[in-house]
Amino acid sequence: MIYLILLMLVLLPIFIYFPKPKQNMDHADCILVLGCPTHEDRSLCQTQIRRCKKAIDLWSKQKAPLIMISGGKAHNATCEAEAMAKYIHQSDPQIPILMETRAMNTYDNFKYSKQLCDQHQIHSIIVVTSTSHCRRSAYFACKFFDEFAMIGDDEPFSLKKRTREFFAKYNTLYCEIKIKLKKNRGSQH
After folding, report:
1. Which residues on neighbouring strands pair with residue 70, listed in sequence order?
2. Which pLDDT tens digit goes with each residue over 16-56?
3. Whole-model pTM?
């Protein structure tokens, strides 16, 4: 019984701060694809391919007239957005693509994509990311966008990825608490 209570206490913040996001939107101004690292040889990883295919599918179903890809050179010398845009254009050169090439993490994906969206009068987005990444991505998306939906890329279940995301959510909360405490100390002086 005590283990069940402890488990509930550990999981409770996850469900409070990272609720299941809206997953359906009939139409949006843009499909935002979140980047992830390419292989060292500059080839796309399976996650990037799944995300690109999902975005192409949504675009072909006319869910949005435009695809934006967000991701810089976060983990190696290859720009994630450029590599993924090349893949999409090889599938269909007619797809209009915007690239955000500065993001180094999920927060940056939304921060810099919002700047591009503002420049292009984009108000609503459908975010494509890994299924395991949707809740944490939605946490950041709501800081920048009022109208968004999250679509998972149909990744196969991976305990490793789910565990990584579990700890990443707690790291996100830890960073948010640090920022709020720092702001509070600054406002008291």
Report:
1. 34, 100
2. 888 888 888 899 999 999 999 999 999 999 999 999 999 99
3. 0.89
CB 168 within 8 A of CB 137: no
For residue 185, what pLDDT is reported?
Answer: 78
Q: Are 109 and 140 in contact (CB under 8 A)?
A: yes
Cross-strand partners of 97: 67
d(CA 140, CA 125): 13
What is the SS3 assignment for the chain?
Answer: CHHHHHHHHHHHHHHHHCCCCCCCCCCCCEEEEECCCCCCCCCCCHHHHHHHHHHHHHHHCCCCCCEEEECCCCCCCCCHHHHHHHHHHHHCCCCCEEEECCCCCHHHHHHHHHHHHHHCCCCEEEEEECHHHHHHHHHHHHHHCCEEEEEECCCCCCHHHHHHHHHHHHHHHHHHHHHHHHHHHHHHC
Place of tokens 């992830």: 36
pLDDT of residue 189: 61
Q: Using only the alpha carbons of the chain, give its radius of gyration.
A: 17
Q: Which of 1-15, 93-107, 171-185 shows the lowest per-residue confidence on average (mean pLDDT)? A: 1-15
